[in-house]
Structures are given as structure tokens and as C-alpha cells.
Amino acid sequence: MHDLIIIGAGPAGLSMAAEARSAGIAADKLLILEKGEAHSWSIRKFYPETKLVEANYKGKPAVCSGVLCIPDMSKDDTLTYLDQAIEEHQLVVHYKEGVNAITRREDGSFEIRTNKATYESKVCVIAIGILGKPNKPDYKIPVKILTGNNIEGLSEDEGRPRLSFADDSHPNITFDHVVYALGGTTPENFLREVGIEFEGKMPKVTQGYETSIPALYLIGDLTPESGSIILAFNTAHEAIQDICESHLGCSVDDLPTNSSRE
To answer: Which of 15, 29, 37, 45 has the CB geometry, 3.0–4.6 Å to 233, for a possible disulfide?
Structure first.
């Protein structure tokens, strides 16, 4: 029986685990399950190499309240920082292990079934973000997908859209149609299947990010405070305080905190 299982090894999930370790939860009582082959999949796949991973959100100062904190960093430096957090806090991460179902049992604990095993935990935290790692079909898709690019502009070429790029990753190209997929959406179906109540399109959570299911929490992009890595870190800090006080009896009095970064 684990004390805490975290679903998702992005910045929110890793900071949740770091907060739990700092609160005294033993490494062998803590587990992170990650569908992808590495942590921080969205950063690895969607951030261009030359783009800074920004700590602030829409111009607001990045005020850190928890264990982890970053300034504006390059993509590589951000991933290295999270690598070091895994090592420093002795975090156990199971990669390539997607969660299929979460069931709350009569005794209040959770049964978490993956594509590889079944686990038991007193508390479960979902930190899968809004993008996630998509399931790839077995068949070929006859559509041109441009990955790893940095679009600079969109113009018209005899009534057809023409894309220009800020670097040499792709030549300027004219298409019949262009589809912009600029963001993600809450994984509503999965959360509803678990039994989490919604308010409109967003899952219902308390101030400490506990859902309508006791001891089941949502952090990071699944909360109204989403938008940046610092905000993801901070939701984990708030969640661990509620988890310790309400469910695990761990100590949050001596949790280290970081100062503001701008």
C-alpha cells in the first residue's frame, strides 16, 4: 500500500512528489506513474529549442510558494532542473505506464490500474495536464504534420494560406488548408469516468485541490490557477498541506519554501 500515487510526471507531478518527500513521506511509499517515455513530455515535444520556458504568467511576477522554483530558463536547463529534482528527492517514476482506471474502495483507499499492474494507495493525485501524451493509431495518417517548428507568419498566396517560419526548420509553404492547434483541453472524459464532479467544463476542487472524491486531488493545468510552471509548482505545495492535514498525518510545519523569482 502506497501513501501517495501521482499520475503524471510533468512539472506539477514532479513538484507534488518533491513536496511529499519534504513533508516526510518515504520514497518507497510514493510512486509516480507516467504514460510517456520520459518526464515533462509536453516541454520536450512542444517547446522549440530556442524558446525560453517562462516562469511568469501573462506578465505576473513568478512568486514561488513551494519546494521547487525556477526563473525563466532554456528548455534544456528546465529539463535538467527537473532531472535533478528527481535525483535529489529520490523519486520513483514508472515510465511507459498509462493509467486505465481509478477506483475508490470501501475503506477509502484507491485501486489504480495501469497497462502493466494494479496499485493501492491511500491518496491519489492526478497531474496529467491538459495536453497529455496522445494515443497513436496503428494506421497511416495522410496529413502533413509539421513538428518542431516556429511559425513566424501567415499570409495569403492567391487565396491560399502560406506559412513562413522564423528559422530554417521548414521552407515557406503554401497549403489548401491550415489547422492551428494552439492549446489543449481538460481530459474531461477520463475525469468523469473516475467520478469527479464538474462545474461547467472544469472539475470541481476545494481550496486545497481535493476533488468531490475524498483523498483524490487535481493539480497543475487541471486547476483554475493553471498557466505556468510556477503555478503548477504552487498548486502542489497547497495540495500537500491539505493531504497531510486531512489524510496522511505528515508534517508541513518545516516544509522549505522558495523566495519570489521575477
So the answer is: 15
